[in-house]
Write a structure and sequence with these properties.
This protein has 334 residues and is mainly α. It is 58% helix and 0% strand. It is globular and about 55 Å long.
Length: 334
């Protein structure tokens, strides 16, 4: 395999991420003003996750750091990561994050992308030998888990775009938290929702990909969602029907890496993320196939092509630097 996560690569990703998770500005808040008293700085609104240009990127930056710490506990950045977590993942600051969510105008805050990443972070922290961070973040994680429980039963349709609003991504990432906490009811809700939304999808044309600001493939993340939630004996027949011509590299648009023509433009910079997230999905999906299945090699080659296009551009500009390493890590570990 050409691209793997090594201790050196993990350290590089950690250095990048430590450089922005506490960087408050520039900042793009997703904040509704209920009155003049709500005009506040990012760190006043979000005591923990006020860096990385936006709240959700900060959350998954913390996930990256937790993952690197778990994989390489003696790595050169491990002391800095532990120090950050000791300073930030403390009860009063988590209480501040929870208080923000209690505002009536925050009902849909970061749905579902930020919800999913916070649960993914909580799951990762639960695997570290230091239990204090996991215990501390638990109330915030439960708040978002409850939002999934409240929202999914009233959501009649999926959202299939290639950006933050994609619901397949939300279900897929939340599944790790539900499994890790042993929440069988939440796991069942995620599975039942995925089947209702995507279970009858057939012969996906991927005709809208890539959009000009996509950072996810709506086709591949749907498949990855179903891979994660369905048992193998049900996933493989569904996958055969959903993308029936993968062995012939069809739909062709999925196999052509996107071109990020101006990485200082935040929306165009999303296209590097598309390449990295496609690589993640291609690799994860290939791992679910029997070893003799020719689609596996085709998808692994496609993953390498997408990594070739964007892995060297993680820090070209802050518009990508504040988040791309997370998707690079997902791809390398898939």
């Amino acid at each position: 395999m050409r691209y793997v996560l090594t201790a050196e690569v993990g350290a590089r990703f950690a250095v990048i991420t430590l450089g922005h998770v506490t960087r408050e500005y520039p900042n793009k808040p997703e904040h509704v003003l209920e009155g003049p008293q709500d005009a506040a700085t990012p760190s006043a609104l979000h005591p923990v996750f006020h860096g990385s240009f936006d709240w959700h990127s900060c959350v998954h930056g913390y996930w990256l750091l937790a993952r690197v710490l778990r994989r390489f506990p003696d790595g050169p950045q491990a002391p800095a990561i532990r120090d950050l977590f000791d300073r930030q993942l403390v009860p009063d600051k988590i209480a501040g994050e929870c208080a923000y969510l209690a505002r009536p105008s925050a009902r849909g805050f970061k749905r579902p992308y930020g919800w999913a990443w916070l649960l993914k972070l909580a799951d990762e922290l639960s695997h570290l030998p230091e239990p204090r961070w996991s215990r501390t973040i638990a109330p915030l994680a439960e708040t978002f888990a409850q939002r999934f429980r409240d929202f999914l039963p009233i959501a009649p349709y999926p959202v299939r775009v290639g950006t933050h609003f994609n619901t397949a991504f939300g279900l897929r990432m939340a599944a790790d938290y539900a499994e890790g906490t042993g929440d069988a009811a939440l796991s069942a809700l995620l599975l039942n929702t995925a089947e209702a939304w995507y279970g009858k999808d057939r012969d996906c044309p991927a005709w809208g990909e890539p959009g000009g600001d996509d950072f996810q493939s709506s086709a591949l993340i749907e498949a990855e969602c179903m891979r994660r939630l369905l048992p193998p004996e049900r996933f493989l027949p569904w996958f055969d029907d959903f993308l029936p011509r993968l062995a012939a590299r069809e739909p062709a648009t999925l196999f052509r890496p996107a071109a990020a023509t101006d990485r200082s433009d935040g929306k165009i910079a999303h296209l590097d993320g598309l390449n990295l997230s496609r690589a993640w999905c291609f690799r994860a999906l290939a791992s679910a196939l029997p070893p003799v299945d020719p689609r596996g090699a085709v998808m692994m080659q496609a993953a390498d092509a997408h990594l070739d296009a964007s892995l060297s551009h993680l820090i070209d500009d802050y518009m990508g630097e504040h988040w791309l390493a997370t998707f690079a890590l997902l791809a390398l570990e898939a």
